[in-house]
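Two records follow; treat each independently.
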Amino acid sequence: MQLPAPRGPITDRLFAELARPPHVFGPPPVGACDAEDDDAQLALFVCYELHYQGFDGVDDRWEWNPSVLALRERLEAWFEGWLARRVPRPPAPPPREVPRALAALVAADDGPSLSAYLRGRGDAAQFREFVIHRSIYQLKEADPHTWGIPRLLGRPKAALVEIQSDEYGGGRPERMHAELFRATMRGLGLDDSYGAYLGGVPGVTLAISNVMSLFGLHRHHRGALLGHLAAFEMTSSLPNRRYSQGLRRLGGDADARRYYDEHVQADAVHEQIAAHDMCGAFAAEHPGLTGDILYGAACALTLDRLFAEHLLSRWREGRTSLWQAEWRADAEVTVR
């Protein structure tokens, strides 16, 4: 993956430093940005990506460079502050009530249904845009939540491993969910290489990935990480059924739809494992962190709502939902 074009003073400075061998540099200032701020979200994403696949031409030793970590800390402080202001913290339930509280939180979410739109009204270009957005996370699906495995013990750890094993195809590379998503991208005529569209998505899309990395890379956020994953699984099965139906309506074949069809079945099971065996058991072991579990779930729901609002509002206006209009041309190909 190549570093994308910078989007402002933070990424301009960061990318210039990363092009050189590792060294010490003073971090650029991080102002009062919104969670959808393109410059700050891209800078944070790139700092996190150094812990995943990295970038061509960027020395791997930048991963733990103190200057990069100092900048990441400032960006995380900004992002956490925004989340605290934007996402109401749900009341902390008694440990035994955590699964029920998660279900109630999900049921109360009143965000717009992106999946319903794409099932019945979205055109092929809009579906391709949606897939481009999702590729930023889906091509490393499960990786951020896997950071939680060594931070757990006993039943919650076993539950998380069970979920992640399915995400990684149960040991079969071709069944990995990231690989299934690549097949969807190929079926839509899109570039399925890792990070190919990083330069084409806006800050709100990057925020969805960044919150997972934020929770996954910090042990004190492990409760929020589990709650985030639970909300992710509990809001997956029905939307993925709709996405598959929408893609079928647009002419997508079985290979292109397999990613969505797989999640209809898998996530219906994962929902119960995540709520009860993972979050419920973790709450019983750490009763002081029940509020964190619910907060992580609330963050997932809020960012997904902002994402849906962004796409649907742009499409209603007849505009691309991608960061810049020229990226839409890359997406306008024929469904196979």
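The next record belongs to a different protein.
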Amino acid sequence: MAQFFKAKPNSSKQMSPKISLDVTQLDHLGAGIAHHDGKIVFIPGALPGEHVKGQLTEQKKRHARAKLQEIVTPSQYRVTPKCAHYDQCGGCDLQHLSIDKQRNHKQDALVGLMAKLGQAEAETLAPALIGKEWDYRRRARLATFYDRKTKHTTLGFRAKASKQVVKIEHCPVLAAPLSDLILPLSQVLNRLASKKALGHVELIEASNGHFVVIRMTQSMADKDTEKLREFALSHKVSLIVQGNESDLTLIGDEAKTLVIGSNELPYYELDNGIKLSFTPGNFVQVNAEINNAMVNQAVDWLSVEPHERVLDLFCGVGNFSLPLAKKGASVIGVEGVPEMVQQAKLNATLSQLDNVSFFHTDLSADLSKESWLGKVDKLLLDPARAGAFESLQWLKKMKPKSIVYVSCDPATLARDSEPLLKHGYKLTKLALIDMFPQTHHIEAMALFELKGS
């Protein structure tokens, strides 16, 4: 991810007097941009067209960072944030901008970064994948903080640029049933004798119900287990306790240890009927509506044929691999987390797909001796924010005719476009994926095709 304002020993962080700033645009991280004394100034919370007052909090040779103090002339596109915790919570940082303008900004930022950092311009800018602007998250991890003085545990999210936990009672971007659990869950957690041992709490909305996963750093007393069981029954949720060894215990009529393959694990279902089971803590896309649209578009763009060999790198639990395999192609999925590889294999079995195989490999390492590395017809990439640069060094061995790259960071997508263009690929299609409305996060899908193929 492109980082602005990484602290260096020679940087100055002294607060300045208030200064007046005219904001001209947003950077790709959602901060307003102005100019002062020949420097670019980044002002989180400010919008284009606004005249604001701020204080410089960090200065470098060519740019500075300012804290927004006052909005003198507001933008016509500024809106009142819906969330009561907006000013403290470190999550949704673009709620002050209307949703249409959020999406326009993200698309412009995506196209601009691809041109500036990757020297890549798409032949076709496909329509953005958009969905609900609120109540869209099917999963969230909340932090806890135990105050030794008050003996109270706070349940919430981290504050902006801080480890401090902000108490949350409602979250408008969470699926409503999950948001409604936060306050009663906080109350029952504060009744536990072992609340000092609480870690994070994960809330999950799955196709087979709602799940609450509580991380505990020590064993619970029977009385605490009973309180959690009563909570689970009264709120109709599956409550799982995660221990020190990442073991999972379902608190039902009887405590039951869960393992990969258990029917009690959460799963989500795609439009094509494929069910993907996952273990709490493992990565899955948090926006179900957009994930379905994204998978459908990727399958459509790759246009696989039954005789083709398809490689899916960073495959997770099979989110793209299994839909591609359902089209009849021979699919290979590769993932760096062994537990997710095991889960993907199980998901393939449950979907009765025998034309897909999964491998555990560190995709940032030397791949030359990997048995699966070789000529493929199509390639799908869905890396983490660090991108897929190391994997793309093996393009000569793979030689795919077309590549779909799903990115959660346009800066690394732009960087990774360079080796693709050098190897004779053209950027045929580019689309914004608005996976996280109300935040600055930009996801995208790009289709690269080999020239002359």
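Discussion point: The mean pLDDT is 94. How would you locate this feature using only the token line?
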